[in-house]
């Protein structure tokens, strides 16, 4: 199990390295070079590829090499593509003067990264026993922060000291570590592959037919994500209104708060194994409530450095804890034969909720002010936690074994909420 978790850690971290660089590091570099905010907004739009990745997830579940490993064959191609896409950035030492090629390469990278995520999630669904899924998803969430910290923080520091080529070279070298991991990875033989791509696409809807899945996906997830997302969307404009410089905002929100979030993801994952999904969800909900209350001075225009940084760190810790629980239950509902599709469509809905939450929060704040929106966010999160705890009591998770490295024939076992699954 340690080897499996190590493989997943390397793959999750390396997929977020370039994403962190594009969304944080490259944005800062381009802005420093005089790029307009409108153009930077266009760069951020490439991130919308992630929420729609469910459109091609069934293809990865249906097609794959039996000789090289079903999902491993995809990962070999995609991890290589990530490295090559980053290397393609090397000639553009003045990125502000080559925005067209830069944005095109970034869009390609995000597409490869999103597709790689489908394959890694599918591997996690198949390899992690139910008791280890909390740890696995804690690693996934923590890895996203670590990737952003390295890609958006460390590479920018290298750029500032040594220039464009060393920064991109470091980014590509770190991403290449994931390729080495894939080469060494031996995927368990797959005997439950869907035989027709149409059947794989039907999984986009059939996943919701499992007992309690609609309750979780369309009840708990929107309440928690919209509530937390509304509160987080207020942070940056509130800091600007309080007089913070863009540089300080970038360092605090992009770097300083990442470290406690990484720890929180790992601890939350371990906590799920010990206290259960419902117990950790309650902890996350209470922490979100308290941390949002701690942000109220900021929402009222008072933002002393120490207190504000502490409040933001607490909020990111709380949001991370809740996020790990949501991802873990999504994985519980992901069936081994269509794991890439199931987990992707469930997680993509959460991403859509986050995008919607940001728009709702900012629009509402313009009318009723930051504090009122923060209070509304607390109410939504509390409702989501209550609904989620009720869901977990009615549909308790029944742990099942992972697909072992020596598995040859599929065996039926009780899966999530009494639904038959193939392990």
UniProtKB/TrEMBL annotation:
Membrane topology, record value: Multi-pass membrane protein
Localization of this protein: Cell membrane
Domain Major facilitator superfamily (MFS) profile: 1-190
Transmembrane segments: 12-30, 42-61, 73-93, 99-120, 141-159, 165-183, 215-235, 247-272, 279-299, 305-329, 341-364, 370-389
Main location: membrane
Keywords: Membrane, Transmembrane, Transmembrane helix, Transport
Stored Pfam families: MFS_1 (PF07690)
Sequence segments annotated as region (Disordered): 398-423
Keyword flag Ribonucleoprotein: no
Name the record gives this protein: Major facilitator superfamily (MFS) profile domain-containing protein
Native species: Micromonospora saelicesensis
